[in-house]
Design goal:
The chain is an alpha/beta fold. The protein has a single domain, classed as Rossmann fold. It is 32% helix and 23% strand. It has seven helices and nine strands. The protein is globular, with a radius of gyration of 17 Å.
Length: 222
């Protein structure tokens, strides 16, 4: 219970700080997850919701091949700049979900103040608390499970920060058995800000426990 309260307070505090600094764009970020720093040549990683490329660079810095997915056009341009020196990073200006298509990517309520700064809260879910559900940018969406199926080797690490789409993506990976082609999954969950996804969150937690996937799938990395 105490951990849940701390995490809730941290989320709200983070959102308040995020809104109060419309001119500041982070260029560095400390990440204390050993697995993020442990990849090397021969490893394959996928960064979904790569945003400005901060985590992508960490995953790629020791030689791993990294597929970075970022649908927001302003963030994607920053991602290109941030990872230009990494030939082992393959960038995709696309969103990920459990089926291909085109959808509206809804932007943060403060997006107009600084599109690059406020790009990281963009979501395919217009009901998300901190986005403008009435407008956004149309983006291409891919089926991440099928993308993983088509890779030439297993994925050592999959990071998901996709503002609500994580439930559908992980559900399909488990249902199709493609989760076996992924070493570790680190997902930030968003049921706290998208009410309709709370049942999906509870179901996924039960599925992970029932299938003994706790050591593979981390829903609380951030």
């Amino acid at each position: 219970m105490a951990m849940t309260i701390r995490k809730t307070v941290s989320r709200w505090a983070g959102e308040v700080l995020y809104r109060l600094k419309p001119g500041r764009v982070a260029t560095e970020r400390a990440v204390d997850i050993p697995a993020f720093h442990a990849l090397g040549p021969g490893d394959l990683a996928i960064d979904c919701g790569a945003n400005l490329g901060l985590i992508t660079r960490i995953l790629a810095e020791h030689g791993a091949e990294v597929h970075a997915f970022e649908p927001n056009p302003d963030a994607f341009r920053a991602l290109e700049r941030a990872t230009a020196a990494f030939p082992n990073v393959i960038r995709h200006q696309k969103a990920v979900l459990d089926a291909p298509g085109r959808m509206i990517l809804h932007h943060h309520l403060n997006y107009h103040l600084n599109p690059e700064r406020f790009s990281s809260r963009s979501s395919l879910y217009g009901e998300k608390r901190n986005v403008d559900g009435s407008r956004g940018t149309e983006v291409e969406v891919i089926d991440l499970a099928e993308f993983i199926r088509g890779l030439d080797r297993p994925v050592s690490l999959l990071k998901l920060d996709i503002e609500g789409a994580e439930y559908a993506v992980i559900d399909k990976l488990i249902a199709t058995g493609l989760i076996d082609r992924v070493g570790l999954v680190f997902a930030e969950t968003h049921a706290h800000s998208i009410a309709s996804l709370r049942p999906a969150h509870d179901r996924l937690v039960r599925t992970i426990e029932a299938k003994g996937l706790q050591g593979k799938i981390d829903l609380n990395w951030k």
